[in-house]
């Protein structure tokens, strides 16, 4: 059964798939697709359905010519999800619950396009029980992703992202990296380097209650993104301004890094709208 929160979106890939399996993306394998590749003699590609009469009449060697097309193929799609301590933050909602919606949306969208899908979760290490290898089994994907709703492990980091490249395919794929990216910039850079054979799409989950909708005056509790521990802070105007400045500087640093790797990020706060994802790919392909 498809969960109600799994809402598909439209996506395309800006490269030609090297897969040998039929799908909906432009490929490099010749076959029964729609992208014209050229003409070859019938003896080289014996498919009478593709005979090109006009080109045959023009051929100086009087060989029967056939049209050659590129086959439409599949592409591997990955949802890589950070389940470190900071993803337990709850403002409008819990970040991991939002991540669950997004991952399910990616899985459903891949299923719609007949692509293979893999889900990979990590904190200090890749979590095998929350990881699913590439497959067409969308219902199994939903079952694994659903477990994020009950996941509440604290005091764990995000170093496992450096293990994720070992779980990716050799064929170029789309990697949706779902995280709040509250980790050292050098670690993010190292991970992007290791995943550079793929198109990485960072999905940044920030909640307004982390830095915009803070208490105006008085004590408040915050989760330390490094340790996962609650910290009590006495808020006043200067502290609120400092939080906003830190997040603004963080966003600037992240965007500079993502730009270097041609990985424009999607920032999501509050409710998830799949149209945001579709619009992202419309801009990418424009």
UniProtKB/TrEMBL annotation:
It comes from the Bacteria. Residues 47-251 form the DUF58 domain. Signal peptide: none annotated. InterPro entries: DUF58, vWFA_dom_sf. PANTHER family: BLL2464 PROTEIN. This is DUF58 domain-containing protein. It comes from Methylotenera versatilis (strain 301).
